[in-house]
TrEMBL record:
One of its GO terms (molecular function) is alpha-galactosidase activity. It holds the Pfam family Melibiase. GO terms for biological process: carbohydrate catabolic process. It comes from Microbacterium oleivorans. This is Alpha-galactosidase.
Length: 714
């Protein structure tokens, strides 16, 4: 007997098959009416336990021996608020496995429920799995990995399924080097052709990307994309977790598998020991599909907008000035801040954020953070007078915190109980002269709640930049089955703490930062309002980061630094300012030292950005010159709307004077084209071919330069 389960929305169809003698699997997922069936052989739910392992033996997070023994029990579809639909698919371990045959487990014990949620529109879904050990079982069961979603890939009407058919895109992520995309055939990305098709077997190997430590995106982005090389049909995914995660691509006898997971034993020393009746729920993941990469990214962008926490900032998108980057660099004083406040207000900033250093009487403050008491010497009239000046100039005050980390020389390190910090084998964990608060503990949470509430009450703080500059190893094993399990519980407590701030202070804006974008994951971005995209201090290196950022976050969340400086040419000034125009504008630099033309250019960039904000918060990104732009002489980012498209072009020093920009979505359209920033700089020659869907650009200056261009369909 076969049970066919269908769910979706007007754009998207998902079909699951549950057969009597096989684990439930995905039959179809993609644009409605334009998606081929997916081959059998890959269970939707993948579980690896300590008592059953893999079959065959491998280090994959698929091929879980228990996974193949799960059988359909029931399913339920229900309508959620906002037009979302949820499918719950219940399965049970229905056949004896190695643990039962060997006598380690009495009876059939594991139940697993897959939950798929689908938005009211768009080709995307979210998925998680809850594993429960039967209440009447007599023994514990140890989970070593549980994928949040596993599927065979079948992209496009032709139903491409083999690794030879696919191109893979993944991104390295490092301090000052975020979003470094690599695009290559899947075969040359590590899934080599081993001739397995001749024997109708799958590979033991796999291509794996995983996080390391407490920086969720400190090595790679928790997202990726794959497409049918022949017709471009694409899928893109994200793992929505602020701690350990992993995704695998592998070759099965039937095709190419993709598995998305939170922490695992192999990668993060994570296990979950389930006593009878206990459950574990995976981190959520999302996957989106489209006729090409732009369409898949648009579907993911739509899913993000529908799934983030509502907040006034989501619509207002105020311009931020922050005193740190290439400016005060953690050394604020009243004397230094006043001219910056006035210059930021003149430029049109709406938030003024005092960054690091405000809590220390000297420059050597790294090991003293954690108490968050204003310096007694930096602000002769009191720190409140500085914030009063910010408000007097029509801006809202913000402040920098690194809340989760406590310097070993701080008062908090000595007064909070040891259980309020990360531990390893009952010893406090120290990394880079810092302890790490454990927000599962009430004393740790109260300490931070008191800090935030005091700063809001005493100084009227309206914006917190929340930084995180230490990768604290694998986590904490205090009160946890494993160090990875302790980190997972902490990660969930951290998100809950952030939500608590906004519950108490709904008008406060939270910026997520982790030495730039070392923790730029959707678990945090779904609750915070914007994300620092990098700590990169060189404008010519920042452009590629800004161009790539909207792949892994919303365009309106991508807080790109723009830091004009007095020693920059006008073209370089425009280059760094253009980085902020399309995205979330985050100004820095000694604006008070700019000459009149640079100041005018800065104010122009802010004005243009403000005019574009309604468009930015509804647009979807695309990359006309490709995702992997870091070493390219020309770099491009486009935002698409219903009737207009915006394009930022960055030209690196020494780049050719001409470039061709393909814009296939505008094929055949007659366009009005204008350069909207900088309007006073020498114009570039822009020639549109509707038949070829290509914009030919001729630049007028070999120096570092950038332009923002608008296309309106007539």
């Amino acid at each position: 007997m076969t049970t066919r389960i269908e769910i979706g929305n007007p754009d998207f169809e998902v079909v699951i098959l549950a057969e009597t003698d096989a684990a439930p699997r995905l039959l179809r997922a993609g644009p409605r009416g334009r998606t081929a069936d997916i081959p059998a052989g890959q269970p939707l739910i993948e579980i690896v336990t300590g008592d059953s392992g893999h079959a065959p033996s491998t280090t994959r997070i698929t091929y879980g021996e228990l996974s193949g023994r799960l059988r359909y029990v029931s399913h339920e579809a229900r309508e959620l608020g906002g037009g979302w639909t949820e499918l719950s698919l219940s399965t049970r371990e229905a056949v004896d496995g190695p643990a039962q045959r060997f006598g380690l487990v009495a009876g059939i014990g594991i139940e697993a429920v897959l939950r798929l949620t689908i938005p009211p529109r768009g080709c995307a879904l979210r998925s998680s799995v809850t594993v429960t050990h039967a209440a009447d079982a007599s023994d514990t069961r140890t989970l070593k990995s549980v994928a949040s979603l596993a599927l065979h890939l079948s992209l496009g009407p032709s139903g491409a399924v083999t690794p030879d058919a696919f191109t893979l895109a993944t991104a390295r992520n490092d301090w000052m080097g975020e979003s470094r995309w690599s695009v290559a055939p899947l075969r040359s990305s590590g899934l080599e052709d081993l001739g397995l098709r001749f024997r109708n077997i799958g590979s033991r190997g796999h291509v794996t990307f995983a996080s390391a430590g407490t920086w969720s995106t400190g090595t790679h982005l928790a997202s990726g994309a794959i497409w049918n090389t022949a017709d471009g049909s694409a899928a893109t995914w994200q793992i929505e977790h602020n701690g350990g995660w992993r995704f695998d691509l592998a070759e099965n006898a039937e095709g190419t598998s993709l598995a998305l997971s939170g922490p695992t034993d192999d990668d993060h020393h994570w296990i979950a020991v389930l006593a009878p009746g206990e459950s574990f729920t995976t981190v959520p993941v999302s996957i989106a599909f489209g006729s090409d990469l732009d369409a898949a990214v648009a579907a993911m962008t739509g899913l993000r907008r529908l799934s983030r926490r509502p907040h006034p900032d989501n619509d207002e998108l105020p311009v931020v000035y922050n005193d740190y980057m290439n400016t005060l660099m953690g050394d604020p004083t009243t004397e230094k801040l006043i001219p910056l406040i006035d210059a930021a207000a003149d430029a049109g900033a709406e938030y003024f954020v005092m960054d690091a250093g405000w809590y220390s009487d000297d420059d050597d403050w790294w090991a003293t953070v954690g108490d968050w008491i204003p310096s007694t010497v930096r602000f002769p009239g009191g720190m409140g007078a500085v914030f009063d000046r910010i408000r007097d100039r029509g801006m809202r005050p913000g402040i920098w915190l690194e809340p989760e980390l406590v310097g070993i020389d701080s008062e908090a390190a000595r007064t909070l109980p040891p259980e309020a910090f990360f531990q390893s084998r009952s010893q406090l964990t120290i990394e880079s002269e810092r302890l790490h608060l454990d927000l599962r503990h009430p004393a740790a949470r109260k300490h931070l709640d008191d800090v935030v509430d005091r700063l809001v009450a005493e100084f009227g703080i309206a914006y917190f930049k929340l930084d995180y500059n230490v990768n604290m190893s694998l986590g904490t094993d205090h009160d946890a089955d494993s160090v990875g399990a302790g980190l997972l519980a902490y990660n969930r407590a951290h998100v809950d703490w952030l939500a608590g701030i906004l519950d108490r202070h709904p008008e406060v804006t939270l910026e997520n930062c982790g030495s730039g974008a070392m923790r730029a994951d959707w678990a945090l971005l779904s609750v915070t309002q914007l994300q620092s995209t990098s700590d990169q201090q060189e404008a010519e290196y920042y452009s590629a980061i800004a161009a790539s950022a909207p792949f892994s976050m919303l365009p309106e969340q991508a807080a790109n630094w723009a830091y004009p400086a007095a020693d920059m040419t006008l073209e370089k000034t425009a280059f760094t300012l253009a980085t902020g125009v399309l995205g979330r504008f985050c100004l820095s630099g000694f604006l008070d030292r700019l000459d009149a033309r640079q100041s005018e250019l800065t104010a122009e960039a802010v004005r243009v950005h403000k005019e574009l904000r309604p468009f930015i918060r509804t647009a979807t990104p695309s990359w006309p010159l490709g995702l992997d732009q870091r070493e390219e002489p020309w770099q491009a980012l486009a935002f698409r709307g219903d009737t207009e498209t915006l394009l930022t072009l960055w030209r690196q020093e020494g780049a050719p004077s001409t470039v061709r920009i393909p814009l296939p979505a505008l094929a055949g359209a007659e366009l009005d084209i204008e350069t909207i920033f900088p309007v006073t700089a020498p114009g570039w020659e822009l020639t549109w071919s509707a038949a070829d869907a290509v914009l030919d650009v001729v630049a007028t200056d070999p120096a570092l330069a950038a332009r923002v261009v608008r296309f309106i369909v007539r």
